[in-house]
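quick one before i forget lol
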Amino acid sequence: MLDLKENNDMTQPQWFLIETEEEYESALARYEEVKRALKNSADHKEKILLVHLISEYEKENRNLPEVDPIELIKIRMADFGYKSADLANEYGDKGTISKVLNYKQALSLTMIRKFSKLLRIPADALIKEYELVG
């Protein structure tokens, strides 16, 4: 829940537990605004709180499908409207992304960390074993 409080002529958000989809969407939108906040700033502290609140809400309300990590990545890419080029921009290597998405190369620890953050997938869902081809 978001409550705006007046504080020295500035409107400052005050966050509570996220209980509805609307509050969740508001928290995600605000996170996007403050995600690059400078360390030790008020926005940075708000960002840390939002990460916690969003994660808790997702843990309680989001059921991930029982699919392998690559299929889960593809589902989340579709959810966010991302293409493989977007993953390559995050990771830095288009060829490797293609191999991973086509089950020819396993996810690396670096990929798991980056894609978990980008696609909002719990890292433990990406570390499951899956079959490679060829």
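fyi The two ends are 49 Å apart (CA to CA).
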